[in-house]
TrEMBL record:
Residues 5-338 form the FAD/NAD(P)-binding domain. This is Dihydrolipoyl dehydrogenase. NAD(+) binds at residues 188-195, 211, 282. It catalyses: N(6)-[(R)-dihydrolipoyl]-L-lysyl-[protein] + NAD(+) = N(6)-[(R)-lipoyl]-L-lysyl-[protein] + NADH + H(+). Its cofactor is FAD. The gene is lpdA. Binds 1 FAD per subunit. The lineage of its organism: Bacteria, Pseudomonadati, Pseudomonadota, Gammaproteobacteria, Lysobacterales. It comes from Luteimonas chenhongjianii.
Length: 478
């Protein structure tokens, strides 16, 4: 007989574990199912984000940044050294230790909140019956008054560049190279491609990034994209736009394996040969094998689970959240949906404001934004005014030897309400939240301009940008 729960959550990634823990906090009996295994072959909660995404990539970004700074910034501070080396095995080991710490932390939180964990592959059947094929081959059945699907997403594989985990890899493989590749190609100049391309470039690889679209970071503000591209090229990242790859052929054996890439760009048909290929062309909902016939849950033409504005599937008691539904595939978006759905189930108000979800790319410099871009405001016919300020005129940024980038504040031309904030520079992954908070409270550019910011601090650039909206920035010729 199936064990009964108030809530059964399928998936223990950012969306799923937040939903499970919040539902348990609200007094519900909760089960959470996850299929992932760690590098040691043991269950590892936390989803792509904790195991092979957000957390491990930031660990490698920080390690590679330290190494890069030794050769490019330390000299400005009068610090000298000889023959700096990178121990890739130690760097990967540090990353793995951090991952284990955090995946183990989710298990501890489940135990503390009395969330029952099941490890295996779940399939949703009719009447909210969930069958779990566990890793030992046995099967258990659970039923939930409510079922929350948080199955996450998988890397998109190109038909001519199948992942082999060694020479042609996705983000998982690129996090575990045993040595710095001499030549690395990346297909896709999105978040994953830029971040992991930056990691291995800083450590000494020759990196070429092939992007099929003609524009760089089209989703970001055009001025921010232009500034970031200029900085990346200074660092030696070879970013080629309008480059459409048609073939990836692996040649050689063992350590002599290479990938011959064929692509076309403005200069015509070309080929390059590299040691490793990272395919980073996006992600797709992990819905394969998730829904049994008769479950009633529908998929969109993109393979995502169909939901309404409140993450309900239209099937009584069945919800879906995170990467497997519409909206940005961002861990923090999943966090908020998980909490919102748990609270809706408990009869509380639950809501996610998609207009104030921040975006961050953790390159050097970092890129972050929230709200509308200038192009979007123009396309929608919304009158606006803009104020910007460069980090090069900020005392703290210059003292840190990180003067690249700027902050731009976009406000409604009539009401002064902040409609967007766009940032390129040091630590803007933290600074963007001033924009998020201002927008959540329907604040104005003048509100930001009249808030005292500590001096010297990077946050002063936001203050100056807000003042520049009305052409009254003190440290800039308006």
């Amino acid at each position: 007989m199936a064990e009964q729960f108030d809530v059964v959550v399928i998936g223990a990634g950012p969306a799923g574990y937040h939903a499970a823990i919040r539902a348990a906090q609200l007094g519900m009996k909760v089960a959470c199912i996850d299929a992932a295994l760690g590098k040691d072959g043991k269950p590892a909660l936390g989803g792509t984000c904790l195991r092979v995404g957000c957390i491990p990539s930031k660990a490698l970004l920080d390690s590679s940044r330290q190494f890069w700074n030794m050769g490019h910034i330390f000299g400005d501070h009068g610090i000298s050294f000889k023959d700096a080396k990178i121990d890739v095995e130690a760097m990967i080991g540090r990353k793995d230790k951090i991952v284990k710490q955090f995946t183990g932390g989710i298990a501890m939180l489940f135990k503390a909140n009395k969330v029952t964990a099941y490890y295996g592959f779940a399939t949703l059947h009719a009447d909210r019956l969930v069958k779990v094929k566990q890793h030992d081959g046995s099967e258990v059945e659970l039923t939930g008054t409510n079922v929350i699907i948080a199955a996450g997403s998988d890397s998109i594989e190109l038909p001519f560049a199948k992942f082999d985990g060694e020479t042609i890899v996705d983000n998982v493989g690129a996090l575990d190279f045993t040595e710095v590749p001499k030549r690395l190609a990346v297909i896709g100049a999105g978040v994953i491609g830029l971040e992991l391309g930056s990691v291995w470039k800083r450590l000494g690889a020759e990196v070429v990034i092939l992007e099929a679209l003609p524009d760089f970071l089209a989703a970001a503000d055009a001025e921010a994209s232009k500034t970031a591209l200029k900085e990346f090229k200074k660092q030696g990242l070879d970013i080629r736009l309008g480059a459409k790859v048609s073939k990836a052929e692996v040649t050689g054996k063992g350590k002599k394996k290479e990938v011959v890439l064929s692509f076309a760009d403005k200069d015509g048909e070309q080929t390059i040969t590299v040691d490793k290929l990272l395919v980073a062309v996006g992600r797709k909902a992990a819905s394969k094998g998730l829904l049994a016939e008769g479950s009633g849950v529908k998929l969109t033409d993109r393979g995502q689970i169909e939901v309404d504005a409140h993450c309900h599937t239209g099937v009584d008691g069945v919800w879906a959240i995170g990467d497997c539904v519409r909206g940005p595939m961002l861990a923090h978006k999943g966090f908020e949906e998980g909490v919102a759905v748990a609270e809706l189930i408990a009869g509380l108000p639950g809501h996610v404001n998609f207009d104030t979800i921040p975006w961050v790319i953790y390159t050097e410099p970092e890129i972050a934004w929230v709200g509308k871009t200038e192009q979007q405001l123009k396309d929608e016919g919304i009158p606006y005014k803009a104020g910007s300020f460069p980090f090069a005129a900020n005392g703290r940024a210059v003292a840190m030897s990180e003067p690249a980038g700027f902050v731009k504040v976009l406000a409604h031309a009539e009401t002064d309400r902040v409609l967007g904030m766009h940032l390129v520079g040091a630590n803007v992954s933290e600074l963007v939240h001033e924009g998020v908070l201002t927008m959540e409270f329907s604040g104005s550019a003048d509100d930001l301009a009249r808030i005292c910011h500590a001096h010297p601090s990077l946050s002063e650039v936001i203050h100056d940008a807000a003042m520049a909206v009305e052409k009254r920035a003190i440290h800039k010729a308006n």
